[in-house]
Amino acid sequence: MNELDQKVAVVTGGSRGIGLAISRALAEAGARVAVVARNGDRAREVAAALPGGGHQGYACDVADPAAVNEVTSAVESDLGPVEILVNNAGITRDNILLRMKDEEFDEVIAANLKGAFNFTRAVARGMMKRRSGSILNITSVVGLTGNAGQANYAASKAGMVGLTKSVAKELASRGVRCNAIAPGFIRTDMTAELNDTQVENLKVLIPLGELGEAEDVAGVARFLAGPGARYITGQVIAVDGGMVM
Ligand code: NAP
Question: How far is the CA of 17 from the centre of ligand 1 (A)?
Fold first, then answer.
């Protein structure tokens, strides 16, 4: 079923991990995907390899509002009006609170939270005018629970929950939906540094007994982006094997 036929979707951090799986899932649903990442070569390679045609890659640091506005204009002129935005780009700079440097806190907030705000603001005007659009924010279960050693990251992800609900309330009357997905532990570069013992210890906390795959998140993103979710807004859906209920 090509439920997103020819719709233009921007996926930030679409070049690796969860974002790459989301880019693929939206492309399989018929969307034309703008893959955004700091490494533009990698973004362009990924876009060229997605199923279907008409995808493009763009270099952009989501933390830079001017760059975000520029890339949004480029996407609109290359592909057309943005109908789906997935704010997925994210980083970690873990440290215990007393050792956390200002830069570690600021960089994570800038990329994860401000980045989502930057892109949401850039596409919102067009979506509101057309009275149609779907915005998805990839937050994290640690934004709901907190996590020792991740004060910066958890705060950025909790901020994304507030952003999601505020945007959902503000734009609902203009036909624009905004939802969030809160992944648990998903196998990507971000979690590759966990050693076997850490993975075994984590599995005990996950009722379904396994770490998730990027495709587990992508399936939910495809659903939330599309017409099957037309009556869903302001929600945070955990994709975490039941870890947080
Ligand atoms: P990943 O494998 O490290 O990939 C991160 C992606 O984001 C890359 O494409 C990267 O490309 C891009 N990126 C990072 N900073 C950027 C910036 N400032 N501007 C533009 N692009 C940027 O991460 P992942 O595990 O797939 O995670 C994706 C999202 O899911 C993140 O928001 C993360 O917080 C969230 N999440 C992940 C897990 C997990 O277990 N993996 C759990 C919960 C939530 P460049 O380096 O080229 O910029």
Answer: 7
Taking only Cα atoms into account, the Rg of the chain, rounded to an integer number of angstroms, comes to 17
Beta bridge partners of 56: 34
Contact 51, 27 (CB under 8 A): yes
Number of H helices, E strands in the chain: 9, 7
Give residue 210's pLDDT: 95
pLDDT tens for 102-133 read 999 999 999 999 999 999 999 999 999 999 99
CA of 89 to the centre of ligand 1 (A): 4
What is the pTM assigned to this prediction? 0.98
Instruction: Check residue 1 and give its pLDDT.
Output: 63
Indicate the helix (H) or strand (E) that contains 43: helix 40-49
Enumerate the β-bridge partners of residue 177.
134
> Roughly what angle, to the nearest 10 degrees, separates helices 65-78 and 115-130?
40
Q: What is the dihedral of CA 8, 36, 108, 114, to 10 degrees?
A: -40
Using a 6 Å cutoff on CB, does residue 39 contact ligand 1? yes
Q: Write out pLDDT tens, residues 158-169.
A: 999 999 999 999
- Cα–Cα distance, 207 to 205 (Å, whole number): 6
